[in-house]
Structure formats: C-alpha cells, structure tokens
Design goal:
Elements (H helix, E strand, L loop, with lengths): L9 H19 L6 H11 L5 H13 L4 E3 L7 E3 L5 E6 L5 E5 L4 H9 L13 E4 L2 H10 L9
Parallel strand pairs: 3-5
Antiparallel strand pairs: 1-2, 3-4
Helix pairs in contact: 1-2, 1-3, 2-3
The protein binds zinc ion (2 copies).
Length: 152
C-alpha cells in the first residue's frame, strides 16, 4: 500500500483510516460478508460510522482492485479481501462463501493453467463449489427425524 502524504487534510486522513479498518476487517473474515455484515463488524471499531460510508469505501476499494465483489447465485453482493488465487465453497443454505486455497485442489489448478480454449486466452479463473457448510449440515442433521436415516 502507498504511504499517505503527511500534509493531507484531516478529512482525507479520516477517510483513509476508515478505509484501512474496513479493509482489515474484511481481510480478517473468511466468509465474505455482505455490506450490511461489514457494517456490523466495522461498527465495533468505529461506532459512529454510517452504512453509507461503509458502502462507499467498499466501492472505492473494489474500484481500485484491492478487494473483489462477488455476485454468486443472484444472492446479495458479498466482498472478498483475499488477493491470492483461491476458489470458493458456496453454502446453498446460508449463502456464506468460504475460501478454498487453490493449492488444496492442485488437480483443478493445473488443469485450468493448462487449458487451451480456442483463441481464448485464460488470464484468471473463478471456481465455485456448491454444498452445505458445517453449521448448516449440523442444523439439518439435528432437525432430521430418525426415520429419515438412510433415505437420501
Ligand atoms: Zn451454511
Ligand atoms: Zn474468497
């Protein structure tokens, strides 16, 4: 990240600090929060911040490529602060998106790196795997009556 010039206005510094905190909170989370969820997280650090400010900062950060917007399955926009190549595990029940390091599925990574698709040159890839997260699987198991056992 570029160092800010010390003579910047106080307003700019405040924006920068807010942006830094938003970016840090996003990078700490591994489940790709929505803007509303980001707001709840950031509010703990900056109690007076508004939802609009969080939106604007997320927009600015994704505009300069520091974070990614995820639009998966028509769900609400989620944000991704991870800069390195990784894939996504999408829970079809709660909608949360977990990261899957590309190195944990080397076969997929290699296949994509080697793929040649006509004239099209692949520069990046997004892989989404759908399923149920641990939390949702636990809830489903709890609710399922015993008689259901074995019927899938
Ligand atoms: Zn889930
Ligand atoms: Zn991610």
């Amino acid at each position: 990240m570029k160092k800010e010039h010390p003579l910047l206005s106080a307003r700019k510094l405040k924006t920068t600090r807010q942006r830094e905190i938003i970016l840090n909170e996003l990078r700490k989370s591994d489940w790709h929060p929505t803007a509303d969820e980001m707001y709840e997280m950031v509010k703990r650090r900056l109690p007076r911040i508004s939802l609009g400010t969080v939106y604007r900062n997320l927009d600015a950060l994704s505009g300069c490529g520091m974070i990614n917007k995820l639009e998966i399955g028509g769900a609400r926009m989620r944000f991704d602060g991870k800069p390195e190549t990784h894939y996504h595990l999408v829970c079809t029940s709660c909608g949360r998106i977990h990261d899957l390091p590309a190195d944990s599925v080397p076969a997929v990574r290699k296949a994509l790196a080697r793929a040649r698709i006509g004239d099209f040159q692949i520069t990046a890839s997004r892989v989404e795997l759908l399923g149920l997260c641990r939390g949702c699987r636990g809830r489903k198991r709890h609710r399922a009556p015993r008689a259901m056992k074995g019927s899938r």
